[in-house]
Amino acid sequence: MAYPATKKAKSTARKPNSSGRFTGITRTFWVLFGAGILGLILYVLAVSVNFLNLFGRMPNLKTLENPKSELASEIYSADGVLMGKYFHENRTPAEYEELPQHLVDALIATEDARFEEHSGIDLKGLGRAAMGIVTFRKSGGASTLTQQVAKMLFRTREDLNDGALNDVPGLRMIIIKTKEWIMAVRLERNYTKREILRMYLNTAEYGSNAFGITVAAKTFFNKKPANLKLEEAALLVGVVNGPSWFNPVRNPERSKRRRNWVLSQMNKYHYIDEPTYQKAVARPIALDYKVENQNEGIAPYFRVEVSKMLKAWAKETDHDLYADGLKIYTTIDSRMQKYAEGAVAEHMKLQQKWFDQQWKGQQPWRDENGKVIPNFLSSSIQRTERYKSLFNRYEGNKDSIKYYLNKKYKMKVFTWQGGEKEVLMSPMDSLAYYKRILHSGFMAMNPLNGQVKAWVGGINFKYIKYDHVKQGKRQPGSTFKPFVYVAAIDQGYSPCYQRPDVPTTFPAERGRPAYTPKNFEGSYSGRSFTLRQALARSMNSITAWLVQKLEPATIVSYAKRLGITSPIEAVPAVGFGSSDVSIYELAGAYSTFVNKGVWTSPMMVTRIEDKNGNVLRDFMPQTREALSEETAYLMTYMLRGATEEQGGTSIILKNGFKFPYEMGAKTGTTSNYSDGWFMGLTPDLVCGMWVGGEDRSVHFRTGAYGQGSRLALPIYGLFMRKVYSDKSIGINTGPFPKPEKPLSIEIDCSRYYGGSAQRDTIPYDQKLNQVDLNDLQDQDI
């Protein structure tokens, strides 16, 4: 009886208790699960605080609350026209209200269908992605829109990858993803869904140098985001996934397939119905494509000059001109700028035609005796970056350098026929081509407040970056004579003071030979002329007498007082513009005459604002009293003589252009007709312009085409004709205002004209200026 009992007990002891077994397994599972959760929490915390610098830094809360993406700074004209941008990444933000609903729908349907349901991390998507990895099946990405925003804003795959574990194979992407999850959750806590969508669309890259939806819409469709059609919005949403791969310009078929897939997603998630979907996918891609770049826009030469000042300001104030989304408001009037650019283009196209005809089949680079300069091109090429690069690459080997300098390539060159032309040229051919091109600079400013209203630094910014307004300096010729005459007026000479037209000789001194300035026509009449007539006719003989009487050092001191900052030599030829100056300097100096003797520095920017419209700086021009009000007025009266006196160098402004208003003017021509200058004055606008070759040795043969009254003055006439016609500009057409106090000296010189000062005597060079305006139009030489 005992045996069965013993057997039963043994059986009971060996049989496992199923309930206890599963309890143990469950307990183990929960222990492991808890440990896993705890480990995950600790891992996330460690990544969050960059424990022991193992994982790389994370954005701090302040950065997270104010995420920063690069924004292009915008530069505006005085009349509110966008002139251009400064940028590394061309991005202009759009408000959510500017985004069409079908653009938002396309984005959600394509990138994150459960965007409205999750809080930064899509657990369902993560599970699907994990299952795909296990089963080796493509299951789609698990990144939410918010994670993508985190990745773009904080550059998680670049800037935040400085931890010790980031170089360990397999860990890098896990750490990156963890950071994106953490930041996605934090973004969701700090921002609304709408704000996150706006961030995405404003931050994304769309290709073709377009960052953000505003620039993308303009680049590909020349539209604002609000005006995008359904299929256009779908295309831009699709492009983001691969800006180069899906670029509609380079890969139109691929881009179309991607667009249609986006539309199918919208249909799948019921953002559009079937008929709408079918119509949209059937439409072709219709682009209005133009990439914004800094070669284009209003006043490109001016914008480059402004950027120099802005970069210095930004460095001092810890701003980034190319990334902070600044708003820069300038003094430029977009209407005047348009007229100035048009006048320069119209005149220079004609001048280039005449120049090419005059030197057809010949080399225009000549010395002062008219002979071809030997080795001109071979010497010039050595100053180019291409030559220096070849010299370094081939260690000075002349044969290799010569081979590549003469090897022909396909290239585009500037031409007045259509703007540019594709040609087959060698670097030497290209150099010879551009050395024959005539250049020009033009600037207009308001003399009363210093504001620059128009700035044309050259004939084509894309191909010729050199600025001839401020950067370029050349001998000003007779446009420097007013500094002689203002010194004379200040010393008590009257505009009616008479001097005979006879030679004046500066004796030899300090190794310098004797110097006798000649009139333009090379002769002297012996007759007497008033100082006003002498300046009006630009007579060298009387100017030379004044320089000798006043002394060159006095002329230099007046030039400096009137704002000329370039070095000026105190030599006998100083009164004839022997030292190089810029248009920018001359315009500022001449403005002193109009502004009652107060010199005002040319002013380009009025204020700078941050991206939120807060004023960071207001600008005011520098001013100083340089002349008495009376002396300044007398100089405007003297300069009016060029348009009012018989034989005046600028009489064509009255006879040809038919301007009935008071205008002051001065022409300038340098030796061998290398430089043609003109300065024009009205009561609220002073303009300066120059025309010439890149090299002084490249110029017209004769004064018939090379003097300032023919080479530069017509630009002013063409410009002012447009300015006067545009009533919206409101240019002052009245007389120059007289001083409040009566003048202390006489300016009515009419009683002298019946005697020795012959008003009807017109030297040969001035007869050229009496021609009808039609003579300035297209004609054969």
From TrEMBL:
Pathway: Cell wall biogenesis; peptidoglycan biosynthesis. Pfam families: Transgly, Transpeptidase. The keyword Glycosyltransferase applies. Keywords: Carboxypeptidase, Cell membrane, Cell shape, Cell wall biogenesis/degradation, Glycosyltransferase, Hydrolase, Membrane, Multifunctional enzyme, Peptidoglycan synthesis, Protease, Transferase, Transmembrane, Transmembrane helix. GO terms for biological process: cell wall organization; peptidoglycan biosynthetic process; proteolysis; regulation of cell shape. It comes from the Bacteria. Residues 442-683 form the Penicillin-binding protein transpeptidase domain. InterPro entries: Beta-lactam/transpept-like (IPR012338), Glyco_trans_51 (IPR001264), Glycosyltr_51/Transpeptidase (IPR050396), Lysozyme-like_dom_sf (IPR023346), PBP_transglycosylase (IPR036950), PCN-bd_Tpept (IPR001460). It catalyses: Preferential cleavage: (Ac)2-L-Lys-D-Ala-|-D-Ala. Also transpeptidation of peptidyl-alanyl moieties that are N-acyl substituents of D-alanine; [GlcNAc-(1->4)-Mur2Ac(oyl-L-Ala-gamma-D-Glu-L-Lys-D-Ala-D-Ala)](n)-di-trans,octa-cis-undecaprenyl diphosphate + beta-D-GlcNAc-(1->4)-Mur2Ac(oyl-L-Ala-gamma-D-Glu-L-Lys-D-Ala-D-Ala)-di-trans,octa-cis-undecaprenyl diphosphate = [GlcNAc-(1->4)-Mur2Ac(oyl-L-Ala-gamma-D-Glu-L-Lys-D-Ala-D-Ala)](n+1)-di-trans,octa-cis-undecaprenyl diphosphate + di-trans,octa-cis-undecaprenyl diphosphate + H(+). GO terms for cellular component: outer membrane-bounded periplasmic space; plasma membrane. It is found in: Cell membrane. In the C-terminal section; belongs to the transpeptidase family. In the N-terminal section; belongs to the glycosyltransferase 51 family. This is Penicillin-binding protein. It comes from Hymenobacter wooponensis.
